[in-house]
Design goal:
The chain is of the alpha/beta class. It has a single domain, classed as Divalent-metal-dependent TIM barrel enzymes (TIM Barrel). It contains nine helices and twelve strands. Strand 10 and strand 11 form a beta hairpin. The longest helix has 24 residues. The mean pLDDT is about 95.
């Protein structure tokens, strides 16, 4: 296996999804990188890994996990960690990330990314969990801020401060999901710009953009539609503050034709390019 390829921060990437495999092999798109959900490639072999090995020859790869459950009171699952390390060692991804959430407790798992109470106790616990993961993998990871639809009455730390503190004290980086910031700002009534202003430049290793569903009562992070205009505006502000960051278009439900995904990536490309021009002109 060759060494990991370099991600061009001036161009966006897309999630690698099964319906697009053939089209991408026939006509490789000009994207900066591909991202995969780690757990989809935990098998001992078979077609998924063969495809990933093939795409890995031409594109940098980012692995994005959904099952480590960093915020759970349970100890980290050693088998899950072992499989993740095997995958990471095999494909040598440029970036490795996991959600800052919990997905189960007492051996019971839920099909959702559940929010953490933002308390000092939870902060210390998550910092320790991230440290153990990084020690086991032998590399730095990123943690992603998640969308949420409720708040804990015991929370005493603003979400943005919690995320910032985890990165600073655990020695990891942040996968900043701009869509999730917007969703939570609407659901919980905070200023999305204040969230961005609290994030340290240099601490963000990747940005996610996606679509949501407005139920009339709450915004649901579905990853099943185009990025909305308000999120594009927030992304522009994030790039202006943080600089060009590897950016991924997520689309996981109601997956459209590859061309639709590439059109979304091209919008991010234009924002990245404009930011780069502004920096050179300054």
């Amino acid at each position: 296996m060759s060494r990991p390829l370099h991600i061009e921060s001036s161009r966006a990437g897309i999630g690698l999804r099964t319906p697009h495999y053939r089209a991408m092999l026939d006509n490789p798109p000009p994207v900066s990188f591909l991202e995969v959900h780690s757990e989809n490639f935990f098998g001992d072999g078979g077609q998924p890994l063969r495809y990933l090995d093939r795409f890995r020859e031409d594109y940098p790869v980012s692995t994005h996990g959904v099952g480590l459950s960093l915020g759970s009171a349970d100890t980290l699952d050693p088998e899950h960690l072992r499989r993740l390390k095997r995958l990471v060692d095999r494909i040598e991804p440029t970036l490795v990330s996991e959600h800052l959430c919990w997905v189960g407790v007492n051996g019971r798992f839920l099909n959702d990314l559940l929010p953490i109470p933002y308390t000092e106790e939870a902060l210390e616990h998550v910092i320790g969990q991230v440290g153990r993961v990084q020690d086991f993998l032998g590399r730095q990871i990123m943690v992603e801020n998640v969308s949420s639809y409720l708040q804990f009455v015991d929370s005493s730390i603003p979400e943005w401060e919690f995320v910032r503190e985890v990165a600073e004290r655990a020695g990891c980086r942040i996968l900043l999901d701009v869509n999730n910031i917007y969703v939570n700002s609407v659901n919980h009534g905070f200023d999305a710009h204040a969230y961005l202003d609290a994030i340290e430049p240099g601490s963000v290793g990747e940005i996610h953009l996606a679509g949501f569903q407005d139920t009339g009562e709450v915004l649901i992070d579905t990853h099943g539609s185009s990025v909305c205009e308000a999120v594009w505006k927030l992304y522009e502000r994030a790039i202006k503050r943080l600089g060009p960051i590897p950016t991924l278009i997520e689309w996981d439900t109601d997956i459209p034709a590859l061309e639709v995904l590439l059109d979304e990536a091209a919008k991010a490309d234009r924002i990245l390019a404009a930011s780069e021009c502004a920096r050179h002109a300054a």
